[in-house]
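pls read this stuff:
=====
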Amino acid sequence: MPELYDVAAIGNAIVDVIAPATDEFLREQAMDKGAMMLVDETRSAALYAAMAPGMEASGGSAGNTIAGVASFGGRAAYLGKVADDQLGGVFTHDMRAIGAHFDTPPLVGGKATAVSMINVTPDGERTMSTFLGASVEFTADDVDAAVIEGARIVYLEGYLFDAEPARRAFAKAAGLARASGRMIAITLSDGFVVERHRQALLGFLETQVDLVFANDTEVMALFQTEDFDDAVEQLRGKVKIAAVTRGAQGSVITAGGETFTVPVFPVEKVVDTTGAGDQYAAGFMFGLATGRPLNVCGQLGSLAAAEVISHYGPRPLVSLKDLAASKGL
């Protein structure tokens, strides 16, 4: 089958509500700074009422990545579940407006579209309280074989490991991708996801995954070590390519016996780190899908991450294609 997309992603389809917050507010609301916590609809509504005025934006980790791929000029597709409600309509419109293929049937008569309340402290750190809603109703029946088989890279969001039906969807997508000779990529998403599903993730990495994205916290949690270098070496032995981000220290890329260290692109001020890892993955996979060397893939990832942390919101506000061209990438 011809390649219709550079990247096709499966993830939790979520609308983000992003607002400034103080460390005191986080303590008052019993939130762990920098973490993603799952909440029910009642708690989500209470947080929304207590938060400072903010902005709403279509989000979800893999959705943000697809927005980045599209901004680079890549061919992108997204699979994820929203409800047949107002926010679901907003999410659908936003995905299609950026040029991504998104045609997953909405959930009718069930949970509302997922919402993530994101509180951003003055240091740019984001703390997320997420009501997963309709997003966890994504099942194997929602996996579009034509999309998976037509993508150069199939990208899976680790957050979906919290729902058993979504894990079965992962397995189906991986099987389709493998049979079609496509590359399978996954992001570990969050340290708490790794701690909850460590064994399942390790098994999935060893048997299905070609490319993994993680940050330093996640990779050390995966191998239950406080030694970053040791964790990276263990990860090297399980996948063909690993890209591990380290915040201001840049990223480390491994592939077989090769290792590349990629610095960050400087920004005047870190405003909001929401979406930094998502955009790094977007740049990296766009580079990989278009034949760039691995170190350049990392540079594209760093460039996209730098753009998104310079403003509120998890998706690029300028053309990443033009930005990359201005940097000779």
